[in-house]
Amino acid sequence: MSFTDLATPSHPLDTLVIGAGISGLSLAFTLQQRQTQVLVCESQNRIGGNITTGQADGFLWEEGPNSFAPTPALLRLIVDAGLEKDMILADRRLPRFVYRQGRLQAIPMSPPAAIGTPLLSWPGKLRAGLGAIGFVRPPLGEQFSQQGSEETVAQFFQRHLGEEVMERLVTPFVSGVYAGDVNQLSAAAAFRRIAQLEGVGGGLVAGAILSRMKAKSQPQVPVDPSLPKTRPGELGSFQQGLQMLPQALAAKLGDAVRLNWRLLQITPTTRQSYIAEFGTPEGTQIVEARHVVLTTPAYITAEIVEAIAPLASQALRAIEYPPVANVVLAYPESALKQPLKGFGHLIPRSEGIRTLGTIWSSSLFPGRVPPGWQLLTNYIGGATDPGILDLDRDSRSNLDGNPIAQAVHQDIRRILLQQEVQPKVLAVHLWKRAIPQYNLGHHQRLQTIFQSLAPFPGLHICSNYTDGVALGDCVRRAQELADILTQKTR
């Protein structure tokens, strides 16, 4: 064994970050800017975590997250990383669609559009309207009690807005964001802000109005004039894809990022620090640090803390990650029923179509395909379809013959194509453990995790299984933790 030149018992590192995804990199970059000594260790041979951008033959695509909402924290990171001029924003007016009863129907984005939408029947619209203004029964019943007085997403939205809204709008949205099951996801955990509106005003509309009034009465955070100007509803990326962000952060961090460093064990010391042992290409390496931040998925974190916090480990293992395949297909424009102008489409589970949804990538961010082509990013699998793993076992090395790609193609053929044509298969990326599920009992699991880790004040968690899976949530958490660590290391 050997001590690295970065941290020894006499000179422990300030902060050791485990994982070089967007959470770990943005945390480390922020700490480095504040003159905090930091080291990032990643078990894989690449940075970025789920962010994976591909390029070939004039096409550019994403195999993980596809875009981001430009939150203030994320914009601050983009500017500091030197990527402001590379950021691109999609047209926020692009419509979103739901495929129902054999055709694409635009999702209503305003009250007048909601009144006129064919997605809901008039009884369904009336039911949703009455529920929205507060004509809602309280959550009662034996099942509610058995669930620990916690509602699923399906129960919450059925109670407030009715069966039609839940089945035709909420379910496809949940499939697109969480790849989740509305009958398992916790409304309070997965839709925290919306669920809280009932307690504020009795109904969703009244709660939203009162929440907005309360927010306006509070001292307003001044707008940072150095940040790029964005508008609500816009989605962002970069000229060469999302991978530009982790690459820029890693370049700024330099040799503070170590790849192929697999954490073997972590041990608290009597010096209010931690000893971390790594398996590396150069042999075993040991690092001592005052603070250790775990940005790893819950199932990896469970292994790391099992020896020192078995209850936390057990709760972490209970967080489910269903399999999701990202399938990137390109089609000639001439094969499509109509020009694609929109964000994409989602598919209710009741339609009998296996694909969860499709992003019209070349419409969202133009310039990512050769002339005459359309690029479609598709998602299949999720909590309601774990059998996607069986298709993967039958997969062949030839992408064009991949069973998952062909299953998605058959769905695209039904929804978007006017003639039979085989797609150009650019990628089939099966994430066997994709998005953490905020299922019933999630808040209790988190409470158990944090209580069990409380005796280890220098050990921190910063990962997307806590309070938000979006890119902006990861950056926000990292910056909040950076504020805490900066105070503790001064």
Automatic annotation (TrEMBL):
GO cellular component, one term: cytoplasm
Enzyme class: oxidoreductase
UniProt key word Flavoprotein: yes
EC number: 1.3.3.15
Cofactor(s) it depends on: FAD
Family matches, as InterPro entries: Amino_oxidase (IPR002937), FAD/NAD-bd_sf (IPR036188), Protoporphyrinogen_oxidase (IPR004572), Zeta_carotene_desat/Oxidored (IPR050464)
A Pfam family it matches: Amino_oxidase
Family the UniProt entry places it in: Belongs to the protoporphyrinogen/coproporphyrinogen oxidase family. Coproporphyrinogen III oxidase subfamily.
Stated name of the protein: Coproporphyrinogen III oxidase
